[in-house]
Amino acid sequence: MTSANEDRVAALVEAAARAGADAADAVYYRSESTQVQVRLGLLEDVQRSDGEDIGLRVFVGQRSASVSSSSLTDDALSALVERAVAMAREAPEDPYAGLAPAELLLQGDAPEIDGDDGADPAPDRLRALALAAEDAARGITGVVNSEGAGASAGRTAMALATSTGFLRSFSSSGYGISASVIAGEGSGMQRDYGYHSSRHFADLEAPEEIGRRAGERTVARLNPGKLPSGPMPVVFDPRVGSSLIGHMAGAVTGAAIARKTSFLLGKLGQQVFAKGITIRDDPHRLRGLRSRAFDGEGLPTHAIDLIEDGVLTTWLLDSASSRQLDLQPTGHATRGGSGAPGAGTSNLYLEKGALSVAELIGDIKLGLFVTELIGQGVNMVTGDYSRGASGFAIRDGQLAEPVAEVTAAGCLPEMFLHLTAADDLVFRRAHDVPTIRIDGMTVAGA
Q1: What does the pLDDT average to over 336-351?
Q2: Are residues 51 and 131 in the same domain?
Q3: Which residue segment(s) compose the domain that 444 sits in?
Q4: Domain Metalloprotease TldD/E C-terminal spans what residues (predicted)?
Q5: What is the pLDDT of residue 336?
Q6: Where is the domain boundary, 170, 196, 219?
């Protein structure tokens, strides 16, 4: 199958050259997945999807065009090539357009990332996992209803070819279990969830643990109050704190810097986080959710500290943005089945600190522990940050009563400089952080 995928994209690139393209690349994706949903102990839905897509990008001088198709017949691909070359000839010139430099392409053996276990669990196995998760969640005292539970399994295959000689492919598997339940009555109802995803089926957390966590989190949210408004420390649970390094990653992409639309513009080589903070992108983590041996343009990937001892060390650059900024691409190109590549991270994480969670919050007289964020109140140009939040009050160094309908606000550059990390880092997501404390935020409550 892998060889056949490579043959497809290689043939498409060769056809583009025969049609008059000066350069070209082609990318193929195939995805298949099975999803099972249950609710209140009964099977609610089973879905199976299987699709493929191929994309061609061609260059005629400094003009380029991208076209994709979900039909892979000979006639469809011939039409795809003709359309792409014709569009490129009419496109405006772009001085930064082009493939990745040939001398930088991945050579030799690709690093092993162990991203595909070859498993294919049957729908009845997925159903049993979903039921076990929901049963555990509903078994928590105080849970009164269920929004359902689900289990999924899937596989993605990708192949990339360029007219500069790159031809590689990979496949990755993925599995997930989730549960969401309700506690309370009437206007006092609360909901929460638990989930886990992994590349290998054997690495999935036990469904009973996922369900138990969903139920306990839901019951803990009952009868929320409000905090008084004012400046105070805000502590982020890891499942929501990961969004903070996501904002950082978005602000250091080459496109944002080239367009001057980033709150970190001009900060390269400067202190942007508190000293001692390291944020690493690791594309070679075995079984990582976003591990990859090569990027979307065929360049080798490597682990890199985006933030080292609080200092911003690099931008995330695909070839186009690297030309705009007169820098080298960094192996962070990402792409789908159509369009030009962008830039993004793989397995991004903030390294753990030295304090336990108890020590992190131990000196807080009054603060907010955030377990859920609501809304998209982040200005990526200025860094202004304002999001709805719920979680728990921190009183005299201890987690106290649940709180809801509060707003946590600040400015990301200042927030980063006042960030402290706990020691409870666990790799569970594409973006991972330990519990994070940020002093000096403004909370709007009662």
Answers
A1: 92
A2: yes
A3: 224-446
A4: 229-445
A5: 85
A6: 219
Query: Which residue, among 427, 440, 442, has the nearest Cα to 238 in the 3D structure?
Result: 427
Helix 207-220 vs helix 123-138: crossing angle, to nearest 10: 30
Judging by beta carbons within 10 Å of its beta carbon (0-12, 13-18, 19+), is residue 189 exposed, middle or buried? middle
- The answer to whether residues 423 and 356 touch, using CB atoms and an 8 Å cutoff, is yes
Give residue 403's pLDDT. 97
Q: CA–CA separation, 315 vs 372, rounded Å?
A: 29
Cβ-count burial of 354 within 10 angstroms (0-12 exposed, 13-18 middle, 19+ buried)? Answer: exposed
Ranges of H-type helices in 19-64: none
Residues 372 and 72: their CA atoms lie apart, in Å, by 43
- CA-wise closest residue to 367 among 440, 260, 433, 280: 440
Q: Does the pLDDT at position 232 exceed 90?
A: yes
Let me know: does 341 contact 334? Beta carbons within 8 Å.
yes
* Contact of 39 with 203, CB cutoff 8 Å: no
Task: Judge if 197 and 228 occupy the same domain.
Answer: no
Residues 257 and 204 in one domain: no
* Average pLDDT for 95-102: 95
Asked if 315 and 417 sit in the same domain, the reply is yes
Query: CA-to-CA distance for 59 and 380, rounded, in angstroms?
Result: 32
Number of domains making up the chain: 2
The C-alpha atoms of residue 119 and residue 290 are separated, in whole angstroms, by 18
Q: Other CB atoms closer than 10 Å to residue 359's CB: what's the count? A: 13
User: CB count, 10 Å around CB of 228?
Assistant: 12
Same domain, 183 and 228: no
Kindly state the DSSP code that residue 270 receives in the 8-state scheme: S
Same domain, 233 and 259: yes
Which amino acid is residue 428, in one-letter code? R
DSSP per position, 188-235: G-EEEEEEEEESSGGGSPPHHHHHHHHHHHHHHTSS-B-PPSEEEEEE
Q: What is the dihedral of CA 121, 126, 128, 132, to 10 degrees?
A: 130
Same domain, 204 and 252: no
DSSP letter string over 234-260?
Answer: EEE-HHHHHHHHHHHHHHTBHHHHHTT
Confidence class for position 445, pLDDT limits 50, 70, 90: confident
**Cα gap 135→8, rounded to integer Å:** 46
